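INFO batch 0412 | record 1 of 1 | parsing
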Amino acid sequence: MGIAKKIFLAFLVLVVLLFLLPDIWALTYKPSFEVRSVEIVNHEGYPCVRLSFRTSDYPVKFYLLTDKGEKIDSESVYKPEEAVYLRLSSWDKNVVGPRRYVVKAFYNDKELWSGEVKIEGASADIDITGIEPSIDSNGLTVKGIYLEVRNRGDVPLYLSSYPSETIKLYLDGSPEHFNIEHLVLMPGESLKVKLGSFIEIPYYELYRAHEIRLSILRVAEASYTIKALEPKVRIDKVVVTQRFTGQCVDSITLTISNTWNYSIDIEWAEIHVDGKKASLWSHPFEKVNPGENRTITLDLVCEEVPKQFIVTVKLGRTEVSYSG
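INFO prediction complete | emitting tokens
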């Protein structure tokens, strides 16, 4: 082979190599990449893996996968960002139970990094410390429920009623409406909070105990008992007057000792004269506070009675009688 031909072939090879060099470089090039930290955080109202990194080139695409390789979330990062947030769940706010995730970083189609993230999941202590009662002639209304919550898990704990409901409220097993501001507790954090409720218990249902139960779904539960109303009641006096048509019961004097946790409205007292429910001339608007003894006279619409009659008073679970 002549020298000229060899030179030509060498030149041709060089041209081809120069032409293919960008493609070869693209196929083999990887930017330098370093992961600085990986942590679980709250980001925009969701539990996320926050990965802090450094890279010599962009864009970098990150994937969060299950331990079986199923994609949960992905995000592309462009210069000059050096952190990415990947949601642990696209539907549940509270991530329940132990889980193992795989995080991967890619430049184009080249894997730059792969790492594993393990969590134990959401866990909490919750205690109902009391309620805010409202007392009127209709009964007891629970306007607020006081809670103490502690996040014992290693992920953020979410308390919300809307739009992503994480709490359920029940009275005697039936769901109740409530409201609470959207709250996030980080691991180890404790919080005292008031939950607004609309629970109404009519006075004629106070003869028995009622259970309020609060559930952070699949995480924790707490209950609170409104005990039965069972005051001490004494009939001190029954006033009977003689009318043209016969004798009438005009008034009754009661002493009530409130052993309950909440105030008692006098109008809750049901008075029967010889088995017939008596009516009051006027509404007394009287209350007996917890631990208090009150003596009060109630004026009745005249109830005609025979010479021998029975007056009964029922207040909650307590029932007393008077024979006249």
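INFO post-check: The first strand starts at residue 33 and ends at 43.
INFO record closed
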